[in-house]
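4.2 Preliminary Data

To establish feasibility before requesting continued support, the project team ran the inverse folding procedure on a target of 79 residues. The structure was first converted into the token representation described in Section 3, and no sequence information of any kind was made available to the design step. The complete token record follows.
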């Protein structure tokens, strides 16, 4: 697998994990509300995750983090 493809997969994995963490938080919080439930939590998460500012923040954070990690690993000697 080419290195660029590996980096892209790492970035997509970070984006997916971030969305999954938001999902767990929102759905768990929905269970604690009086009129909540799984479907209400899913609808809330889905509308939240599709907002352009939220998606942009998730993608930008993943990109910056992965670029930093790859940059720091590039300066270390390989063992």
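Position-by-position output of the design step:
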């Amino acid at each position: 697998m080419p290195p660029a493809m590996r980096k892209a997969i790492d970035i997509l994995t970070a984006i997916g994990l971030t969305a999954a963490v938001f999902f767990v938080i929102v759905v768990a919080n929905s269970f604690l509300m009086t009129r909540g439930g799984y479907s209400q939590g899913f609808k809330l998460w889905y509308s939240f995750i599709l907002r352009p500012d939220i998606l942009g923040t998730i993608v930008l954070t993943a990109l910056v983090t992965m670029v930093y990690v790859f940059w720091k690993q590039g300066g270390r000697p390989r063992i």
